[in-house]
Amino acid sequence: MFTQNMCICPSCQSTALSGFDRDGNITEDRNYCLAHSPDPDGIKSSIYNYIRSHDKIVGLNASGLIFTDIDLTDKRFYGCCFQYCTFCNLYSERCRMRMCMFDFSLFADCSLLQSNMQFTSFAGATFSHILFTGSDLVHNNFCGLTAYQSSFDDSDLYNSRFIQAKLTDTSFHNCNIKNTIFYDVEQVNVSFRMSNTREAFFQRDNQESI
């Protein structure tokens, strides 16, 4: 997992961004958050370059950054933090993630086809025009998600949670939703066609209701 150092700035309660040594490796030294960094452009550039130049990324904290037109195809992330980030125009395939956090992040116009993401959190995130088609999204947290015109079609969502999510014009066609929890979900034009809805939970008494 990423090192949860707090920002060096006194009284700041935000976690610090990852720092790098002279060889470009992630360090566990204390650092600033993006808002208090004396060189925000420099630290952003270091993080962007690190992601571009590595296929396996472990313990990176990039909270609050904006990622635009970055290709994550075949990249592997383990224990990384992308809370409060913005992702725009990502077109990637086969991205692999384990125990990463995207809480309260914004995804707009992204294709993350055939992703493999497990034990990863998207709590409170917003999806707008996002494609996860053909993905393995197992044991993930989508609680409080707001999704608009997005697709999880042909994906495995086993044992994931969408508690109190707001789903609009979003499809779950031909998905495995066994043990997936949809308690207190607000739905507008949501389709579960050809998915195993009888094995999912839509009410707290475990009775199916779509």
Distance between the termini: 37 Å
Averaged pLDDT: 94
The portion of residues assigned to helices is under 10%
The arrangement of helices and strands along the chain is EEHEEEEEEEEEEEEE
Total E-strand runs: 15
Number of helices: 1
Q: What can you tell me about this protein's structure?
A:
This protein has 210 residues and is mainly β. It is built from one helix and 15 strands, in the order E-E-H-E-E-E-E-E-E-E-E-E-E-E-E-E. It has one helix at 40-53; strands spanning 19-20, 26-27, 56-58, 66-68, 76-78, 86-88, 91-93, 96-98, 106-113, 116-118, 126-131, 136-138, 146-148, 166-168, 186-188. It is elongated, with a radius of gyration of 18 Å. The mean pLDDT is 94.
Characteristic key phrases:
eight-stranded parallel sheet; 1 helix; 210 residues; 15 strands
Give a brief description.
This protein is mainly beta.
Topology:
Layout: E1 19-20, E2 26-27, H1 40-53, E3 56-58, E4 66-68, E5 76-78, E6 86-88, E7 91-93, E8 96-98, E9 106-113, E10 116-118, E11 126-131, E12 136-138, E13 146-148, E14 166-168, E15 186-188
